[in-house]
Backbone:
């Protein structure tokens, strides 16, 4: 990695395998990295993310306490630490289809198969510095855009296009000297606001999708464990939307989201025999939220008035 300034790069290596940690530390030091910390548990890694998020995280896929995919997911969704855009490389001995799927969905940048060589690590780090992918943001995913050209909507359907977001890369900024720490932090804050908007817009579509699966099950009296899981997902999406609204341009639809939180929780609490009035409220509230996020401000106000009316019948 000649010509690159690695002195200020912070790296964290998380692996329960002491021998692997030693190998990775040697590889990184030989490559020129100096500020390296490591830990044997995800608890230690979580503490590190909260205390001092690194510029580069190399993380084993499995630990005794849990799989690391959930840990990376929490980083990407800003549930852990102050920088959800850190570069993440995961490592495994056995890249099964199920494991690769979990790693991809976690939002990690890359996956290395052990045994790991010096050349591999240097190549992947170089790629993150020079050619890092933009991030996709949906209701349940934040991470690199892995779509191939054949997976992308055609240019004549712009309404189906979801463009990736260029995210801050503190690894690149420090290596190249393109930005100061303060500038990187300002970029992180601005990108978080952009992602938050994308997130609530995706949630609005997810709410309608879930409701369109849930209500037919009750109407056909074929309520199953899958229905309960979708209700659980609906509660999560509703609560996460309400939590995020105050940081977006959509704070004017908070009442709609609070109504959805209330109704979805009531149905979930009595999922085998929910009140009919709650089920009747679910569809108009879901579509009112969709209108509020995708329509004009006037349409949002109208949707809120409709939902306020039906919420009054809810008796709460």
Residues:
């Amino acid at each position: 990695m000649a010509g690159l300034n690695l002195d200020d790069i912070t790296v964290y290596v998380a692996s329960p395998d002491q021998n692997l940690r030693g190998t990775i530390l040697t590889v990184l030091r030989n490559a020129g990295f100096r500020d390296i910390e490591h830990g044997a548990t995800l608890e230690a890694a979580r503490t590190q993310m909260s205390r001092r998020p690194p510029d580069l995280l190399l993380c084993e896929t499995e630990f005794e306490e849990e799989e690391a995919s959930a840990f990376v997911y929490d980083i990407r969704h800003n549930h852990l630490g102050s920088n959800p855009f850190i570069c993440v490389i995961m490592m495994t001995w056995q890249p099964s289809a199920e494991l690769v799927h979990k790693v991809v969905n976690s939002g990690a940048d890359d996956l290395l198969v052990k045994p790991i060589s010096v050349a591999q690590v240097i190549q992947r780090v170089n790629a993150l510095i020079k050619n890092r992918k933009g991030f996709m943001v949906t209701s349940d995913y934040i991470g690199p855009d892995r779509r191939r050209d054949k997976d992308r909507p055609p240019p004549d359907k712009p309404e189906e296009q979801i463009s990736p977001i260029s995210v801050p890369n503190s690894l690149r900024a420090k290596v190249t000297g393109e930005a100061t720490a303060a500038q990187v932090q300002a970029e992180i804050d601005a990108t978080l606001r952009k992602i938050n908007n994308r997130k609530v817009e995706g949630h609005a579509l997810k709410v309608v999708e879930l409701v369109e699966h849930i209500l037919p099950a009750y109407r056909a009296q074929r309520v199953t464990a899958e229905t309960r899981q979708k209700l659980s997902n609906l509660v999560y999406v509703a609560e996460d939307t309400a939590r995020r609204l105050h940081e977006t341009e959509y704070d004017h639809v908070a009442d709609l989201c609070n109504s959805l939180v209330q109704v979805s929780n009531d149905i979930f609490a009595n999922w085998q025999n929910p009140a009919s009035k709650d089920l009747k409220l679910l569809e108009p509230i879901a579509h009112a939220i969709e209108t509020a996020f995708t329509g004009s401000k006037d349409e949002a106000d109208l949707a809120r008035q409709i939902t306020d009316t039906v919420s009054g019948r809810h008796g709460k």
